[in-house]
């Protein structure tokens, strides 16, 4: 064991540029040989072939990777945290750091390595690098086959921190970490060290590089699905703190709200009730929400009570990707609530769009059947922030698509008065977004033909038209004399 540790320390304590690639390969081969040769002898197969088959199947059940060194645990071979940190960083940087852009200092230091490689044929160097990558892949598979433990969790977090200027290395490290957590999320050790797991997940979710955030979020769903509701609430609260912290970068807020979307989408509507429900509840509803093995009639209180206060500030964020993901999160939330929640959300969003501090009085249809649009003051100072307006309009668009036209007609004057003000907003992006909203509103005429008529009437209600001026303009227009020149072709 001491010999193996010495090999590990020789690799981890030296920078890759200080190592001759042949010596590096020889050291890795020696480590691999030691870990393989010191493995205990396999048990002799018994005469019961069926029992042997079931034993092998049970040992490898659910494993996506084959442990290259099943007799050794990584944190048992490298018992010092510093040694484990160094070796983890070495494997990740050496395997995935080939394509990284080197700093000027590293480029100057790398000249010595190039001088050493001059004696080696260029094609031979390529073959040696390829073989080195194969050896490093063996050790990466060894990492993936380890059980979750605090030393390994800390070593991964240290590697991400040390690779702050190497995004490719960091990206691949996050992919390996997420695969490793997915491998072990059904094991007791996952829940035992859940706090460290959460901290490691936060590193990937809030990374400054978008590819790393997307890689982490894309692999988050099966891991979150293993959280208990208590742990899910704690994880959600961590994400809320990131979003509400003024010191958080927009990248961190974007990653956090994307993780909230994953949490919400892990709740699924199921079309029939489980036997665990009482007969009384079966008569009341035919749908329920399911999260993992948990069954419920509505979203947990920690989500329902806090999501509004989380989403609305993000809808006003200057970064468009943050606003877009906040809209997606709100849509995912409302699709898992009852219909009345969607109606209340539309009222709230339109009220926030209004430049008036006092609520608008709702005016119903006038006797002649036309609508009377409430006149609102439209001073430029009274318009809300354009970023917030765009975010709120995007929420309204999503709700208008889902809410039947009959419910929109009940408060038509209230809704359209605010839309009309948004059409006069100084920011062109807000006016364009409002035009898109009206397009989806007019599309509701397939459900209620009166929607198109009301929209047109509401738009032209305050237009001042002078018939005399139009007639005078028409009489004064001279029709142009159009002469066709050129030879005529007679048949």
Automatic annotation (TrEMBL):
SUPFAM superfamilies: ARM repeat
Species: Stichopus japonicus (Sea cucumber)
Name the record gives this protein: Uncharacterized protein
UniProt cross-references to InterPro entries, sorted A to Z: ARM-like, ARM-type_fold
Protein origin, superkingdom: Eukaryota
Gene3D superfamilies in alphabetical order: Leucine-rich Repeat Variant
């Amino acid at each position: 064991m001491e010999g193996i540790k010495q090999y590990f320390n020789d690799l981890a304590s030296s920078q890759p540029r200080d190592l001759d690639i042949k010596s590096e390969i020889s050291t890795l081969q020696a480590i691999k040989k030691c870990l393989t040769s010191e493995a205990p002898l396999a048990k002799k197969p018994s005469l019961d072939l069926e029992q042997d088959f079931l034993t092998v199947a049970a040992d490898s059940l659910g494993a996506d990777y084959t442990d290259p060194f099943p007799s050794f645990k990584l944190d048992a071979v490298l018992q010092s945290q510093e040694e484990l940190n160094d070796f983890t960083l070495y494997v990740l940087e050496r395997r995935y750091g080939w394509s990284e852009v080197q700093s000027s200092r590293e480029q100057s230091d790398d000249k010595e390595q190039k001088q050493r490689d001059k004696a080696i044929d260029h094609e031979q160097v390529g073959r040696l690098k390829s073989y080195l990558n194969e050896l490093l892949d063996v050790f990466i598979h060894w990492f993936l086959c380890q059980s979750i433990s605090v030393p390994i969790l800390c070593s991964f977090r240290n590697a991400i921190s040390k690779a702050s200027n190497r995004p490719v290395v960091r990206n691949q490290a996050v992919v390996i970490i997420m695969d490793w957590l997915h491998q072990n999320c059904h094991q007791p050790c996952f829940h035992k060290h859940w706090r460290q797991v959460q901290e490691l997940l936060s590193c990937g979710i809030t990374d400054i590089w978008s590819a790393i955030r997307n890689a982490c979020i894309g692999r988050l769903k099966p891991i979150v699905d293993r959280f208990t509701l208590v742990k899910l609430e704690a994880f959600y609260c961590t994400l809320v703190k990131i979003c509400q912290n003024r010191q958080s970068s927009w990248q961190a807020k974007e990653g956090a709200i994307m993780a909230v979307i994953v949490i919400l989408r892990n709740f699924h509507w199921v079309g029939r009730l489980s036997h665990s429900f009482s007969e009384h509840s079966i008569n009341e509803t035919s749908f329920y929400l399911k999260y993992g093995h948990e069954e419920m009639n509505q979203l947990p209180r920690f989500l329902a009570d806090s999501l509004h206060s989380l989403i609305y500030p993000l809808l006003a964020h200057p970064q468009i990707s943050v606003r877009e993901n906040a809209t997606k999160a709100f849509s995912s939330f409302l699709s898992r609530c009852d219909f009345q929640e969607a109606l209340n959300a539309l009222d709230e969003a339109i009220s926030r769009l209004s430049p008036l501090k006092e609520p608008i009085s709702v005016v119903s249809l006038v006797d002649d059947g036309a609508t009377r649009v409430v006149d609102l003051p439209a001073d430029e100072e009274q318009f809300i922030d354009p970023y917030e307006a765009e975010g709120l309009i995007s929420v309204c668009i999503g709700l208008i698509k889902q809410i039947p036209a009959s419910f929109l007609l009940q408060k038509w004057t209230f809704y359209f008065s605010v839309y009309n003000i948004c059409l006069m907003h100084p920011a062109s992006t807000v006016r364009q977004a409002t035009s898109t909203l009206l397009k989806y509103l007019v599309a509701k005429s397939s459900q209620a033909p009166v929607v198109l008529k009301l929209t047109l009437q509401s738009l032209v209600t305050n237009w001042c038209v002078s018939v005399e001026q139009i007639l005078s303009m028409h009489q004064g227009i001279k029709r142009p004399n159009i002469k066709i020149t050129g030879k005529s072709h007679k048949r």
